[in-house]
Structures are given as structure tokens and as C-alpha cells.
Amino acid sequence: MAVSLYDLSIQSYLQTVGAVVGILEKGKAHCDAEGMDLDEIVQTRLFSDMLPFSFQLHSVAHHSLGAMQAIEAGEFFPPSNLAELDYGGFQDLMAKTHAELEGYSREQVEALEGRDVVFVARDRKVPFTAEGFVLSFSLPNVHFHAATAYDILRMKGVPLGKRDFMGRMQVKQ
């Protein structure tokens, strides 16, 4: 059985974005219980030269839903003009991202198979097929930024485990 672009992209994005929705919920519950400032977490970095929690969450949305929009448009750009959101705003962003990804039909995505996508960063252009873009660029970025957000919450004491990061798996029905 061949794996379709829908399975590679939408199904994978929904699993990871859904997991991020869940870890944000656990993060809020922990901070509320411990009297911690949620907005302090938004600016937290794992290391001084790494981008903050806020960027990690923007990037999860950008490299999932934004990637699908880029495949449709044929061009993908680095994120810019990122909205300053509080913790609740990021919860809303992740929920909206998940809902919009759910709105893609299998037929709609499979019609994009083989399509050209160019990653444009300043004067550099990197050509991909839709499948190559998802597998070698978009998914690794989604997973990196989701893992970094998870790690920041863990560093702040949120009781998360591997199962929280994995999200809803695609088990045999």
C-alpha cells in the first residue's frame, strides 16, 4: 500500500499539533496549580541563543498549516510579523491550527501530489516537490519546534511524558 500525501502531511500534522494542544492544557493546569506566571513561560528559552517558547509555537503552526498553504501556493517563506500572544493566545492558535488542518479533505491534499514548492529565504530558493517538502523540511521542523516547546514546559516542571508528546497515534482500527 502506498502512503499518500494526505497521510504524510495532514495525518502527521494533526497528531503533532493535537499533542501540542494537550501539552499546553497540561502546562496551564500545572501553572495554575503552582501559582506560576503563564506569560513568563511564553518568553522562556532553553538556552540563551535559542528562540523562546513563543517562537516554537508559532513555528509549529507555520510548518504545519502554513506548509499546506505553501504547497497550495507553490512558495514557502520563513515566518515573519509574528503576533505577540499570551499563553492563552497560543492555546487558541494551536486549536485554530488543528481545526483548519482538519478541514483539509483527502481529495484536496492528494490533488497536490507532485506539485512544485519553492522555499524562498531572501535571495535563496530551494525547490521541492510537495512530498519532498513535507518529508524533508516541514515535518522535521514541526517535530523540532514541538519538541522544544515540550522541553521548555518540562524544564518548568510540567509533568509531561513521552505519551503526551506523541499525541493520538494512528492505530489500526
Description:
- A hairpin with a 2-residue loop joins β2 (116-121) and β3 (124-129).
- α3 runs antiparallel to α7.
- This protein has helices spanning 5-34, 38-42, 53-62, 65-73, 87-102, 106-110, 130-155, 162-166; strands at residues 75-76, 116-121, 124-129.
- With 173 residues, the chain is mainly alpha-helical.
- It has eight helices and three strands.
Can you lay out the helices and strands and say which pair or pack?
Blueprint: H1 5-34, H2 38-42, H3 53-62, H4 65-73, E1 75-76, H5 87-102, H6 106-110, E2 116-121, E3 124-129, H7 130-155, H8 162-166
Helix pairs in contact: 1-5, 1-7, 3-5, 3-7
Order of helices and strands: HHHHEHHEEHH
- The total of beta strands comes to 3
Backbone structural class = mainly alpha
Report the end-to-end length measured between terminal Cα atoms: 16 Å
* Neighbour order of strands in the largest sheet: 1-2-3
Oligomeric state of shown chains = single chain
Q: Mean pLDDT, nearest integer? A: 95
Our count of helices gives 8
Write a short abstract of this structure.
It contains 8 helices and 3 strands; from the N terminus they run H-H-H-H-E-H-H-E-E-H-H.
Core attributes:
single chain; 173 residues; mainly alpha; 3-stranded mixed beta sheet; globular
